[in-house]
Amino acid sequence: MANNRDEFPQKIKDLLGNRVGWRCSNPDCRKPTRGANDDPQEITNIGVASHICTATIGGPRYDPQMSPEERKSAENGIWLCQSCSKLIDDDIIRYNVDLLYIWKENAERLAIAELQSASPVSTNNKDKVLLRFYVQCFDRPAFQDRISQEGRIEDFDQAIEDTIIALNTGVLRTQDGVIIKQSEGKSAIINHAWREKLNTITDMLVALRKRLKIAKDENLYSTYGKGEVMYCFYDQELETWFDLTREEIIKILSSICQEAGISGLHFPRLPYRW
Ligand SMILES: [Zn+2]
User: Fold this and answer.
1) Pick the residue with more confidence: 79 or 94?
2) Distance from the alpha carbon of residue 91 to the mean position of ligand 1, in angstroms
3) Ligand 1 centroid – CA 82 distance (Å)
4) Does 229 score more than 70 pLDDT?
5) Which of 61, 114, 154, 194 is the most buried (most CB within 10 A)?
């Protein structure tokens, strides 16, 4: 239990709850925390103003640098339902300070979005639908095989381009240009942190294509083998860079999936070096 000294004043508790429309700030929960009580004069409240950094020495996410004033400020609070309040203190590695700030910021943004929308929307669910679509776009050999084992480099380049287009416009097409699925581009993602990560992924995909073009122009790789074409990069570091960059892209994508609570992809199937 927190020291009374560092407990949030009622005014701060009300502020935290009001700013998120009295819903739990956990994106996977979003439970309303206030409603009518059987007693017509009372309300039922299952919401808690939780500390992001605890007020108890050695407790969850305790920050010794924080002053008591900072600990009981609105900045250090997040509105949650009772069970999520317990959840975040049971696993402080998963529910770290950065994640809780993301939850808080998004819950506040969702509260505004719901106010502005004619019908109640779950923007978080919409984000999840979009994320599932993007994950599907990465489920192709171009993100699973080592660069030396890709089929034709032209096909690889095309697959990367298709993925960039899918992220930007929500249109996923096959290599012969047939549109197989249509969604929305990443600018439709409400969650700011996820959108930023998707922007980073797109930048990295663009870099892959640019580097591939330079490698081609400078004849930095050649093909060998009959039937199944294999590639030999003359620059081992460059070859590794292609593999590591794609692994990093999948890692970023996986971190978004983890935060959103949806299943991601795994990469690589193969080690980088022989
Ligand atoms: Zn909750």
Assistant:
1) 79
2) 15
3) 7
4) no
5) 194
The whole-number pLDDT of residue 116 equals 74
Q: What CA–CA distance (Å, rounded) separates 252 from 201?
A: 7
- For the whole model, what pTM was predicted? 0.54
What is the DSSP secondary-structure string of 216-267?
HHTT-EEEE-SSS-EEEES-HHHHHHHHHHHHHHHHHHHHHHHHHT------
Query: Separation of 141 CA from ligand 1 center, angstroms?
Result: 38
What separation in Å is there between the alpha carbon of 50 and the centre of ligand 1? Answer: 11
- Dist. CA 253–CA 136, nearest whole Å: 11
Kindly give the distance from the C-alpha atom of residue 65 to the centroid of ligand 1, in angstroms, as a whole number.
28
**3-state class (DSSP) for residue 169:** helix
Report residue 150 as tokens.
């890709």
How many Å lie between the centroid of ligand 1 and the Cα of residue 201?
30
Rounded to the nearest whole angstrom, what is the distance from the C-alpha of residue 23 to the centroid of ligand 1?
A: 8
Longest dimension (CA), the chain: 82
* CA 122 to ligand 1 center in whole angstroms: 15
